[in-house]
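Possible regression after last week's pipeline update?

I re-ran a chain I had predicted before the update to compare outputs. Posting the input and the new output here so someone can diff against the archived version. Not blocking, just want to make sure nothing changed silently.
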Amino acid sequence: MSEKEKNTTAEVETEETAAVEETAAEETVCEAAAEDFKEKYEKEHDSFLRLAAEYDNFRKRSQKEKDASYSNGKADAIAKLLPVYDNLERAMNQPTEDAAYKKGVELTMTGLVKIFTDLGVEIYGEVGEQFDPNLHNAVMHTESEELGENEISQIFQKGFRTGEKVIRFAMVQVAN
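New output (post-update):
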């Protein structure tokens, strides 16, 4: 091999080595850039996931508040009508000679009870039921051999609830 060929071969080898080194350097730079990009991507992705979770929680909380708001409004409106119910109940229990008057009071009471039922209101508190402090307000106590333990012996005021929400506790007398 001639001197010229050796130089050319050496130059080609040098150029190839330089190209390989340059490619390696470029790959290192690309890998570093890729790592930076991956880090930024993961950070942004994590931030996005957190924001999506916060929004989902906000949406659920808002829906619960909306549902509770309707339920509370309905309970407040029903609570305002309870004195009317009590007065109609007293009027039904009064003796009267006027049959038309008595029939009118009964029809009015039936209409009010139907409205309550349609709204999902449960009227509770009957003689013979078991006393439940979550539903009843015991204002009197009596001893009786005929009645069982914690049995309601007298109702002073009916109780009202919608779902699990008590609008008014039943006012009762409890035996034994």
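Follow-up from reviewer: compared with the archived run. The radius of gyration is 41 Å. Marking as no regression found.
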